[in-house]
Specification:
Layout lengths: L11 E2 L2 H8 L8 E5 L5 H7 L5 E6 L2 H11 L4 E4 L15 E6 L5 H10 L8 E9 H7 L10 H9 E9 L4 E2 L6 E8 L9 H12 L7 H8 L3 H7 L12 H14 L2
Parallel strand pairs: 2-3, 2-5, 3-4, 5-6
Antiparallel strand pairs: 1-8, 6-9, 7-9
Helix pairs in contact: 1-2, 4-6, 7-10
Amino acid sequence: MIKAKKSLGQNFLIDKNIIKKISDIINIENKTILEVGPGTGNLTSSLLEKRPKKFFVIEKDKDLIISLKKKFNDKIKIINDDILKYNENSLSKEELIVFGNLPYNISTEILCKWILNLKKKSFWFSNLILMFQKEVADRIISEHNSSKYGRLTILANWKLSIRKIMDIKPSSFSPKPKIDSSLLFFSPKKKFFEIQNPHNLEKITRIFFNHRRKMIKKPFNQLYNGNMNIIKKLDIDLNLRPQNLDLNTYYKLVEEYEKLRG
């Protein structure tokens, strides 16, 4: 009997109905699959029934890897690594369909890493089907003018279309987490705002949202030296708060920041 490790943020999905619903979301027959954090392999088993062409799993826990090898033998290729350190672009020449019951303690880090590492015109995945704490999922899909809107919303929605599939109760996991979870479905946008360096988007949103309850005048002056031309061009009111600016305004702010720095 394998025990979940709190230090790795493990909560194993055990609800057969939920597992079936996740497996049925998208056709994976003859596709290349990546599962992040397969745990005890309950979702893995269900996905394998759908006859994918190749199946990769990334798992950090060596005890789980021993169990997964016994259970699946050569049906899956197991990579024993930390997902935050692994270069996902090196996995396959084909686009991957990614499933992940992400460890709650690093779920936002994983998503941000994947977004910031995306190459300009290409995606290493065709879809992401990922589980988050419900409160994190709510932040990812929130609208501007909402208290949940923030850096994560702006980063996630830059190149990706996102929809919620369902909420999942704690009783679907072992051990039971203290909060609800949500499953989100991500797909690449065909058109998105061109930014030279994605890390500039991370930087600008970090500075703006450092004081989310204060007016944006201070962070704007810090980044743009109070440049009135930018204020007029983007029609920005410096008395607003960070959550009042919509997604496109932030992407345009990055564009202006990159122009200033040549």
